[in-house]
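Data card: per-record layout.
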Amino acid sequence: MQDLLAMRDLSSAQLSHILDLAQTIKQRPSAWQNHLQGKSIALVFEKPSLRTRASFAAGINRLGGHSIYLDAENLMGKREPASDVGANLALWHDAIVARVYSQATLHELAAASDKPVINALSDECHPCQALADLLTLTEQLGDLKQVTLTYVGDGCNVCHALMAGAALAGMNLQIVTPVGYEPNAALLADAQKVGATTGAEITLHHDFNQLQQSDAIYTDTWFSMGQERDSNQVMHDFAPYQVNQDLMKQLGAKYFMHCLPAYRGREVTAEVIDGPQSLILHQAENRLHAQNAVLVELFAGAQA
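The structure for this 304-residue chain is written out next.
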């Protein structure tokens, strides 16, 4: 593995290995404290961030490496092309972590850099989030092949990552969106094709009454950064898709998940997100461990 640009770039074996490695690093952090000794990693962010920035910086430090943060909103594209940014950063740094508006920017960075590039969020995919989510579900429920997850809301980058991850893991995923807010059709078809080989059922719905019982329910904000949508229309379209205690009971869900930031009273009620069934802080913590596993794996591949 040379880069991590999208969740669907992984194989089932690679996903399983990363999740196992993340658990190992989490359980025995001292054994990995010098793994990135002498390594420098550039954090190139076009978008604001709390969890992604803080977890990567802390994780890199725990592995013995150094990170530098670059606010790239007015640097990349406007000031100079992503290809020049990638080529230059590769001269001084051992990897690039990029949080960008467009998936195309990631491919431009990776093509120009001979060092690993990690997608820390794009308009198409959020692989680091999905890896943390799958790690969290593994810790709580065990074998992912026995798990059913229901994603409610916008068919966005997080949904795309979960689709690909569920397919690779053999985990059932029910996606429920308002009409007109479905995930990318080609990415859904690709996930369903992979799922057919792993035993995962990836299904798309618009009606809660079509759903099977679920181990967990996952939602995301209705307004993603960088999207231009009529706020009144979105609020109208998504209002019936709020995750609340009634929905949790209807699907028999034991756990609630959210990638954050969350807007209580909008996509989820405070009762659910702040209740004992909520895994949001487990997910946030596991961002660090999942990302550290990716870093270890990418550097192992670069040295091979």
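Known properties of this structure: Residues 83 and 226 are 22 Å apart (CA to CA). The mean pLDDT is 96.

See the next section for split statistics.
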